[in-house]
Amino acid sequence: MDLSSEPTTAPLPKTCVVWDPALTAYNFGPGHPMDPARLALTADLAEQLELFSRGSVHRAEPFVASDVQLSTVHAPSYIAAVRSVSETPRELPEWGLGTVDDPVFPGMHEASARLVGGSLLAAEAIIDGSAQRGVNFSGGMHHASRDRASGFCVYNDAAAAVQRLLDSGVRKVAYLDVDAHHGDGTQSIFYDDPRVLTVSLHESGLSLFPGTGFANETGGSAAIGSAVNIALPAYTGDGGWLRAFHAVVPQVTRAFGPEVIVSQHGCDSHREDPLTHLGTSVDAQREAALTIGMLADELCEGRWLATGGGGYSVADVVPRVWSHLIAIVSGKPVPVRTEVPEQWRQRVRAEFGAEAPRLMGDDVELWWRSWQVGYNPADAVDRSIMATRKEIFPLYGLDPWFD
């Protein structure tokens, strides 16, 4: 069912959307998969779809997070190391800096801290009530841990936003991550904090970086059950991906009972992404965002902060997925049959010499088996789902076979 077709009379939620071209300064250089053009293209597509001009949307420019703000989730010695290589570029592999994944560049600290400032800005808007929801599609740097850069991520903006919400008095935050890669950095930062639920739906670490995120990673001794991991086999497509999402994420999130949801929407699970081995569509990723939005309305009075993340099909996939995300968070989804504006397609032709998609969706029929129809032990996706449900569901009083 396409939820965007359902009429609504409810007012659109006040939404803080973070964007400024300065965010493209987060740039590891030519040839690196994390091409900042994906951000500029997303902003341009969202602009042409008139998402920024919605009356409920306030577009805000991010600030550069201070060392004090960064130190809520990162070690001061690590921040000092990032500052150092930012001023004098060199390799510091003990901090994950100067590697193939995270090459250093002049201004790295400021560019990375600006991403954090964007997510903090959106979190602050939710805290002070000036917005019910926020989007920082430039953020979602979920591999950065407390004292190390990793996987194209220097500072963890999503973790900083979660911590800011907690420090403001929010009692429970659910962090939901649908990136193709395990959200290892965010999980590690909150592994012993029972106030934070981290849920990651990703390709198995047996076939993809960072090699973690298995069902038996369930939280530290002080927070058992607070980490939830669904590790999917390579080549899982829409049906399996959505079955896994709907068999775990809503149930655990409801049982946890968050006051705010923070989500990470890396779109590298798409079938055209060059770095991963999953096979989802834009339509499936849009469906997951719709469900997260419904959970925010049901459990959190609508309070929801969404970030971007991975995604390396720069023109074909990322701008469409994150434009859908902006539309959904701001309360009025864009139908998948919407035509991509011709002016935007012309920009893609001029800059990339390629034909951009004609529609905002991938023209697929979404269907997945509900968990209620039964478990198939011969299905690798079902085995992955059951591994997670067996580890986690009893901790919340849920039956892994039936709930």
TrEMBL record:
Keyword tags: Acetoin catabolism
Domain Histone deacetylase span(s) in chain numbering: 32-327
Statement: the UniProt record of this protein carries the keyword Lyase: no
Pathways involved: Ketone degradation; acetoin degradation
Tagged with keyword Nucleotidyltransferase: no
PANTHER family: HISTONE DEACETYLASE HDAC1 (PTHR10625:SF10), HISTONE DEACETYLASE HDAC1-RELATED (PTHR10625)
Designated name of the protein: Acetoin utilization protein AcuC
UniProt organism field: Arthrobacter russicus
